[in-house]
Design goal:
Belongs to the CEP162 family. Keywords: Cilium biogenesis/degradation, Coiled coil, Cytoplasm, Cytoskeleton, Microtubule. Its main location: cytoplasm. It is found in: Cytoplasm, Cytoskeleton, Microtubule organizing center, Centrosome, Centriole. The chain is an all-alpha fold and about 375 residues long. The chain folds into 2 domains: about 1-55 and about 80-260, no CATH class; about 310-374. It contains 7 helices and no strands. The chain has helices at about 1-50, 55-60, 70-90, 90-185, 185-305, 310-335, 340-374. Helix 3 (about 70-90) crosses helix 4 (about 90-185) and helix 5 (about 185-305) packs across helix 7. The radius of gyration is 54 Å and the shape is rod-shaped.
Length: about 375
């Protein structure tokens, strides 16, 4: 009984601790949901206060759909609105990144709560297993005690039966001997027979008292065992109900976490698509700017009367000659007797340097004409 009371107290403490932990988790989740709703309202107010983007103004209003497909259309419209907000400006993209980071924090918090709940459930299961093992040991001990008492009762009953048989045999012998004594027995033999009968009666009463005490103890043990079984059954039912409620709560929390994670993944996909579209648009704009700059240089050169393509070809020719000169210089370092070739190349380089001066004069003339035209 003392072990059962200790076990019941331990289970009650574990249950109260788990209830307090679950209450704290529910309060934390309620506070987090309230904060998330406030942030969503603030973001909605900020989006309402921003001017409408060209993409939002140009997008046509969605047609009226059937109620069965309304949720899917709403999800598609929401995803399109998120992409439009991302393309509208950096402020919306920053707000969405902040919302995604906050949602990641919430998902991490929910995962931590789920992990703590799983650990609490494992601890409760371990406590239940330990309690069941202790109950099994106590039940085995009670069964062994009851078997010992049954054996003692059997021995006592056998002894009582033997004593009753001996007393009956002694009483029959005493009655026969009494007639003989009355016929011619001695007073000493009668006193001996009376003392033997009194001892047998005392032993029989003692065995009967022991038998009654053992029977009462067996009944008490059986009653205690039945009470312990009733307590175990009630406690097992309560733990099973609590475990089922905990599993249901974890299932709901897991579904909510999965839904939030899906929303986070959708938002990340929308952000990635918007970033890809922005990168493509930026590459196109850079290409257009480069082409416009090239066309501007060509127009300025034509206005100044300079063939820009010929100048570029001359620059390429100068670069080729310089490369050839460098190659010849390397060959001169390896081979001796190439002074004439080097001199010819130097004269050719001087000629190209003179042409380069002419090209520089043409560039200055183009710049002056551009300044005068501006």
């Amino acid at each position: 009984m003392h072990l059962q009371q200790q076990e019941a107290l331990q289970l009650q403490r574990a249950e109260r601790q788990q209830q307090r932990q679950q209450q704290d988790e529910v309060e934390d989740m309620a506070e987090a949901n309230e904060k998330l709703q406030q942030q969503q309202q603030q973001q909605q107010q900020q989006q309402d206060s921003l001017p409408a983007s060209p993409l939002r103004a140009a997008s046509p209003s969605p047609p009226h759909r059937a109620p069965a497909a309304r949720s899917r259309d709403d999800a598609v419209a929401q995803s399109a609105a998120q992409r439009a907000q991302l393309l509208a400006g950096p402020a919306d993209a920053a707000a969405l990144r902040q919302a995604i980071s906050e949602m990641r924090g919430k998902v991490a918090w929910l995962e931590g709560q789920l992990e703590r709940a799983l650990r609490a459930r494992e601890a409760a299961e371990e406590q239940m297993a330990a309690a069941a093992a202790e109950r099994a040991e106590e039940r085995a001990w009670h069964e062994a005690q009851r078997a010992d008492r049954d054996r003692e009762v059997g021995l006592l009953r056998a002894k009582a039966a033997a004593l009753e048989a001996a007393a009956a045999a002694g009483a029959g012998a005493g009655s026969g001997g009494g007639g003989a004594a009355r016929g011619g027995g001695s007073p000493g033999s009668e006193a001996l027979q009376a003392s033997v009968g009194a001892e047998d009666a005392a032993l029989l009463r003692a065995y009967q008292q022991e038998n009654e005490a053992a029977t009462r103890r067996i009944k008490d043990l059986e009653q205690q065992l039945s009470q312990a079984r009733a307590v175990l059954v009630a406690e097992a039912g309560r733990l099973e109900r609590h475990f089922a409620a905990t599993q249901e709560q974890e299932r709901r929390h897991g579904a909510e976490a999965a839904e939030r994670l899906q929303k986070l993944l959708d938002a990340q996909a929308a952000l990635q698509a918007a970033q890809d579209a922005a990168a493509e648009r930026e590459a196109e704009l850079r290409g257009q700017i480069a082409r416009l700059r090239q066309e501007k240089r060509e127009l300025e050169a034509r206005a100044a009367g300079v063939d820009l393509r010929a100048m570029e070809e001359g620059d390429a020719l100068v670069a080729a000659v310089r490369a050839e000169m460098e190659a010849m210089a390397r060959a001169h370092a390896e081979q001796a007797g190439a002074h004439a070739i080097v001199a010819a190349l130097e004269s050719r380089l001087a000629w190209f340097a003179e042409n380069q001066e002419m090209i520089g004069a043409s560039d200055s003339l183009i710049a002056e004409q551009g300044e005068s035209s501006a």
